[in-house]
Design goal:
The structure holds two protein chains of two kinds.
Chain A (H helix, E strand, L loop, with lengths): L44 H13 L6 E3 L2 E3 L12 H9 L13 H14 L9 H10 L11
Chain B lengths: L10 H11 L2 H11 L21 E5 L3 H13 L2 E5 L12 E2 L3 E4 L2 E4 L7 E2 L6 E2 L3 H10 L3 E4 L7 E3 L9 E2 H21 L9 H15 L11 H7 L1 E3 L10 E2 L5 H6 L2 H9 L7 E4 L4 H11 L3 E2 L2 E8 L4 E7 L5 E6 L1 E4 L3 H4 L3 E2 L3 H7 L4 E2 L2 E7 L3 H4 L6 E5 L5 E4 L10 E6 L3 H8 L3 H12 L11 E8 L10 E2 L3 H12 L5 E3 L11 H21 L1
Helix pairs in contact in B: 1-2, 2-9, 3-10, 3-17, 5-6, 5-9, 12-16
Classes of the chains: A mainly alpha, B alpha/beta.
C-alpha cells in the first residue's frame, strides 16, 4: 500500500476526488501484488526524478518510443518554460500519465519540477509549495495535448 | 463477573454469526460455505450469426480481446483482418522463456532460462469465477493446472516488525485472531458491549472467541498445545519416546500488529484473490497461442497504425510496416479497436470529442515483474514452501514461488518482484542488471543462505517501458468512471473499443474478454440493423 499515513501528501480541492485511488492499489477487482510494498521516495528533486520519473521518461529525461507510441522528453521541453504546466500535469495526470498526488508530497513535487526545469532545461526559477497550492486552488484545466509530444 | 450461561448454537448458526462478525478467517470460511458474491457477467460465448454476406471487420490489436473478437466474428460470418503492432500475437498475454528477447525503451534483454522455465510478465493467475477465460481455455484446449495462491507457510516481512525477521503467515494469522479474540472477550466480559449486543449474542460471541482465538480457560491467548495445533510447534509431533509435541511461543500483540497481517488476511479474502486459482500449464501465453491457432492467419504483424478514419460507408486505417517502413491502408465495414489508451490517445482517430476525451483521460498503472531462475527449488526442499507468496514492504513487494513441477530437479524460476506504485517506478527506472541486483538483495531477507548463491539468471519486464503499451493497465477512479466510461465503450459510428480498459475488471483478462464480447455483440446488432 501507498503510505497513506504520510503527512504532507497533497490534499487539494482539485485533486482530493482521486486521492482514494492510489496507483499501488489500483482499485476495484484489479490484479495487484497485495499487502506487500511500502516503498518510500526520497526527497530531493534529483532523487524523485530518478526513482519515479525515470521509469517512463528515462534516466536522461529524453523519453522514448516513436511517433504514436511515445513517452515525451522532459529534457529540452519548451512546455516547461511555464512552471504551471508541469504542476498541473503532476496534480492531475494527462493521457497515460497518472497524477502523482498519492505518491509524492507537495515538497517532493516542487523539488522534482524545480530539478527537471533547471537540470534538463534552463529554467532556473524554483517551483515552491506555494506554487502548487496556487494551482490547487485555481484549478486550471489540463492543457490539451497530443500526448506523445 | 457471572458465568455466562452457554446454550451452544449449532455449527451452522455459529458459522453464520462468525461471518457477520467479520473476522477475516471467519469470513473466508463463511464465504466458502455460503459464498457467491458477484461473479463474472459471463453468460456463455456470444451467439452471433447471420452476418451479411461479404461484411468485413478490421480488428486493431492481437491481444486476447482482439483475437476473441476475430474468432467470434469469423464464426458469425464476417471477413476479419487483425492488425498488430508487435511481431507476436497475445499482447499482455505473454510468457518469456530461454532465448526470448525483451525489448524495452532503452534496453534489450535475452532471457537465459532453462528449457521449460518461464516468466509470465503479465497475467499469471485465473480466479475460479473468471468464467470467460475458463470457458475459452476449455473450448480452445488450453490445459489448466492449479495455481497455489494461499500458502500459510509462506512468509511476511516488514522492516519494522520482528526486527526485520520474516515470519510465517500461519504464525501471524493465528496470533492475530488469538489477540483479537482475547480483546473482544475482555470487552464482552467487562460489559463494554452490553448495550450493543444481546445477552444471547454475547454468550455466543464469547464461545466463538474462545474457539476462534484458541483461548485458554481464562479467555487469554497463550502458548498451549491447542494453539500449537494451529500455529505449529517448537518440537513437532513425532514417534516413540519423544513423540509428544512442544508448542512454541506465541507472538505478542504489539509484534503481531507491527506486521499489519490484517492486510494479508484481507487480501486473501477478496473475491478475485480467493482460492481456487488456475494457470495454463507451461505459461500464460498458451491462451494467446490457442487463440492464435484459430485466428493467426488473419493477423498482419509488425503493423503500426497511424490513423483511424470512418464515414457512413466504412472505416479506413492507415499504417506503416514496422520492418519496411512502407505505408499501407486497410478498409472494412466496421472496426474493433483494442489498442491501449496510452497509445490510442496519441493517434489520429475519428471519433466523437467525448470518446477522445475518455481515451485521453485514462492513466495506466505501472508494474514490474522480475523472474529469477534458481539452480534448485530450495524454497521447497529447505523451507517446505510450495507455491504462494511471501510479502515484503520493500520495493519488490513480494516473491512468489512457482506452481507446477513441484519436487522437480533442476533450475526453477520464481517471481522475484511484482510491485505496483512506488516500488514499480523505482525498479522500472533501473537498468535490467540493477533490477536483478535489487531483487536479489531484497528477496534475500526470506532466504538469506540460498537466494544469491543459487541464482542463475534473471529477466524483468517494466511495463512502463514496453514500447507497445507504455504502461501496465488502466487506472480508473469512481469519478473518471462517471465522467468517461460510457463514452469510452459506446459504439461510435462504425468504431467500437475493447480491452481490459473498457471493463470493470481492469487488469484482468476476464475484463478484456468480457469487453470484447460486449463490443462485438453491439457491433453485430448495428451491422445487422444497418
Amino acid at each position: 500500500m501507498i503510505k497513506k499515513h504520510k503527512t504532507g501528501l497533497v490534499a487539494l480541492a482539485a485533486v482530493t476526488l482521486v486521492a482514494s485511488a492510489t496507483l499501488a492499489s489500483p482499485g476495484f477487482a484489479q490484479d495487484r501484488p497485495g499487502p506487500g510494498g511500502n516503498a518510500t521516495v526520497d526527497d530531493s528533486g534529483k532523487e524523485v526524478f530518478e526513482q519515479i520519473c525515470a521509469a517512463c521518461h528515462m534516466a536522461d529525461a529524453k523519453g522514448g518510443g516513436e511517433a504514436g507510441a511515445r513517452v515525451p522528453a522532459l529534457a529540452g521541453n519548451k512546455n516547461l518554460a511555464n512552471k504551471d504546466y508541469p504542476i498541473i500535469i503532476l496534480l492531475k495526470g494527462r493521457g497515460g500519465m497518472p497524477w502523482f498526488t498519492d505518491i509524492l508530497t507537495k515538497p517532493q513535487i516542487a523539488a522534482v519540477i524545480t530539478y527537471v526545469r533547471g537540470h534538463f532545461n534552463d529554467y532556473k526559477d524554483p517551483v515552491t509549495v506555494a506554487d502548487i497550492d496556487r494551482i490547487g486552488s485555481t484549478n486550471p484545466p489540463v492543457p490539451d495535448c497530443n500526448c506523445g509530444h | 463477573m457471572t458465568d455466562p450461561l452457554f446454550v451452544p448454537p449449532t455449527r451452522r448458526q455459529l458459522l453464520t454469526m462468525i461471518g457477520k462478525a467479520g473476522g477475516a478467517a471467519a469470513l473466508y470460511q463463511a464465504m466458502t460455505v455460503f459464498g457467491h458474491a458477484a461473479e463474472s457477467q459471463f453468460n456463455g460465448p456470444p451467439k452471433l450469426s447471420g452476418a451479411r454476406k461479404g461484411s468485413t471487420v478490421l480488428v486493431l490489436g492481437a491481444g486476447v480481446a482482439g483475437m476473441l473478437a476475430a474468432y467470434e466474428l469469423t464464426k458469425a460470418g464476417y471477413n476479419v483482418q487483425i492488425l498488430e503492432f508487435q511481431d507476436r500475437t497475445g499482447g499482455r498475454n505473454y510468457s518469456v522463456r530461454g532465448g526470448d528477447t525483451i525489448n524495452e525503451l532503452g534496453s534489450t534483454q535475452t532471457v537465459q532460462f532453462a528449457p521449460g522455465n518461464y516468466l509470465n510478465p503479465g497475467p499469471w493467475r485465473i480466479p475460479y469465477h473468471h468464467r470467460t477465460v475458463l470457458h475459452y481455455c476449455k473450448e480452445l484446449g488450453v490445459e489448466l493446472e492449479h495455481f497455489a495462491q494461499l500458502n500459510f507457510n509462506a512468509m511476511t516481512h516488514r522492516k519494522d516488525a520482528y526486527g526485520g525477521k520474516p515470519q510465517r503467515f500461519r504464525d501471524l494469522y493465528v496470533d492475530y485472531k488469538g489477540h483479537v479474540a482475547e480483546l473482544l472477550g475482555k470487552s464482552l466480559n467487562a460489559g463494554a458491549l452490553d448495550t450493543t449486543v444481546t445477552a444471547e449474542d454475547k454468550a455466543k460471541l464469547l464461545e466463538a472467541m474462545r474457539d476462534w482465538g484458541v483461548l485458554d480457560k481464562n479467555m487469554a491467548y497463550t502458548k498451549s498445545v491447542k494453539v500449537g495445533e494451529q500455529r505449529g510447534w517448537d518440537r513437532p509431533p513425532g514417534g516413540g519416546v519423544n513423540g509428544a509435541p512442544i508448542p512454541n511461543e506465541v507472538g505478542t500483540l504489539s509484534d503481531t500488529l507491527s506486521t499489519q497481517v490484517w492486510k494479508e488476511i484481507g487480501f486473501y479474502t477478496e473475491e478475485v484473490m480467493q482460492a481456487t486459482m488456475f494457470q495454463p500449464k507451461g505459461g500464460m501465453d498458451h491462451i494467446g497461442k490457442a487463440f492464435t491457432a484459430k485466428v493467426g492467419h488473419l493477423v498482419r504483424l509488425g503493423t503500426r497504425v497511424t490513423k483511424i478514419a470512418q464515414d457512413t460507408k466504412g472505416v479506413t486505417v492507415d499504417w506503416t510496416d514496422a520492418k519496411t517502413g512502407a505505408a499501407g491502408q486497410s478498409k472494412a465495414d466496421w472496426l474493433v479497436c483494442t489498442i491501449p489508451a496510452t497509445i490510442l490517445g496519441q493517434l489520429d482517430i475519428q471519433v466523437s470529442t467525448a470518446k477522445k476525451a475518455a481515451i485521453r483521460s485514462l492513466p495506466y498503472g505501472n508494474s514490474v515483474k522480475i523472474g529469477l531462475e534458481m539452480k534448485r527449488r530450495f524454497w521447497e526442499t529447505d523451507y517446505a514452501i510450495y507455491g504462494g507468496h511471501s510479502f515484503t514492504d520493500q520495493d519488490i513487494s513480494l516473491i512468489s514461488y512457482p506452481t507446477g513441477n513441484w519436487f522437480g530437479d533442476g533450475p526453477a524460476v520464481l517471481l522475484g518482484a511484482y510491485p505496483f506504485g512506488i516500488g514499480a517506478y523505482r525498479l522500472a527506472g533501473m537498468t535490467p542488471e540493477k533490477r536483478i541486483a535489487a531483487a536479489l538483495d531484497q528477496g534475500s531477507v526470506f532466504h538469506p543462505a540460498e537466494y544469491k548463491s543459487e541464482y542463475l539468471s534473471g529477466a524483468s519486464v517494466a511495463w512502463s517501458r514496453m514500447p507497445w503499451i507504455l504502461g501496465c493497465c488502466a487506472t480508473w477512479t469512481e469519478e473518471s468512471r462517471a465522467a468517461h466510461y460510457q463514452d469510452l465503450v459506446s459504439l461510435d459510428g462504425r468504431i467500437v473499443l475493447a480491452g481490459e480498459h473498457c471493463s470493470y475488471y481492469g487488469c484482468w483478462q476476464e475484463g478484456a474478454l468480457l469487453s470484447s464480447i460486449d463490443a462485438i455483440t453491439r457491433l453485430h446488432q448495428a451491422a445487422s440493423a444497418a
